[in-house]
Amino acid sequence: MLKINQLHKSYKIGDSSLHVLKGIDLSVEEGEMVAIMGSSGSGKSTLLNIIGMLDVADSGEYILDGLPIDNLTEKKAAVYRNKFLGFIFQSFNLINYKNALENVALPLYYQGLKRKKRQELGMFHLDKVGLADWAHHLPKELSGGQKQRVAIARALAANPKLLLADEPTGALDTTTSYEIMEFIQQLNDEGKTILMVTHEEDIANMCKRIVRLRDGVIMEDKAITQVRASQYV
Ligand code: ADP
Ligand code: MG
Predict the structure, then answer these.
(1) What is the mean pLDDT of residues 77-103?
(2) Parallel, antiparallel, or unpaired for β 209-214 and 217-223?
(3) pLDDT value at 118 more than 90
(4) Ligand found nearest the CA of 213
(5) 3-state secondary structure of 173
(6) Which residue, judged by its Cα, is nearest atom 5 of ligand 1?
(7) Which pLDDT value is given to residue 73?
């Protein structure tokens, strides 16, 4: 699904520069569910953003689904992003003035689907996350867990090959976190490849593989026995 070789990334801050990723090698196969761990500031989001083509590396090689991603124009990157990737964020990133259905249907607009088809598919995905009855509610009328479920439905609307999640449970209480993780595990059971960033050990243990970042490199990369979130829900 993706292959990264010797990826480097620095940020310029005034006259100095902060070397965040110092030669990352990572391969992810189709169907995997991988947690990227590391302390705050270790570069987890930076790595995920590069994988998600929201940012670019300074050097190294990145191949996504057989396509070399380095040196893509922003326009091409946007096309691949819409085609291959779904995103979930800690802060949900829903559009406040659009209702749940409109939020979910938005990626389909960028895919050029007609309004009726967007509404149909949007409802299908909202129903999948158990929120069909909330389709016409605004984000502010939803709980944190419901907002994240809308965000998951939106991430899945365009049927991405790879789902990227940056601290998807970071803003949720423990019970709601497990509910969201159960959901993400189900998606993986259905075959979706998932790459998520977390700094919580409990959450990482619900994945199938843990990659740990430290000092800009991967210090550990191992398969684990997955803990099922359903045990806790
Ligand atoms: P994590 O997600 O593991 O907490 P990040 O990838 O967000 O870490 O950040 C890694 C380091 O890079 C941190 O020291 C952070 O302050 C710095 N950083 C992140 N984004 C930027 C940016 N756009 N400009 C400058 N420094 C940044
Ligand atoms: Mg982060």
Answers:
(1) 93
(2) antiparallel
(3) yes
(4) 1
(5) coil
(6) 43
(7) 84
SS3 state at 187: helix
Atom 21 of ligand 1: nearest residue by CA position? 11
Mutate-to-test residue for ligand 1 from 15, 16, 18, highest number of ligand atoms within 8 A of CB: 18
160-180 pLDDT per residue, tens: 999 999 999 999 999 999 999
**Ligand 1 atom at minimal distance to the Cα of residue 197:** 2
Domain ranges of the chain: 31-57+73-231
**Contacts of 207 by beta carbon, 8 Å cutoff, 6+ apart:** 33, 34, 35, 194, 196, 224, 226
In a 3-state reduction of DSSP, which class is residue 133?
Answer: helix
C-alpha distances out from residue 12 to 26, 38, 187, Å: 25, 22, 38
Residue 109, ligand 1, Cβ within 6 A: no
pTM here is 0.94
Q: Does domain 31-57+73-231 have CATH number 3.40.50.300?
A: yes
Whether complex ipTM tops 0.95 = yes
Tokens of 218: 């991967």
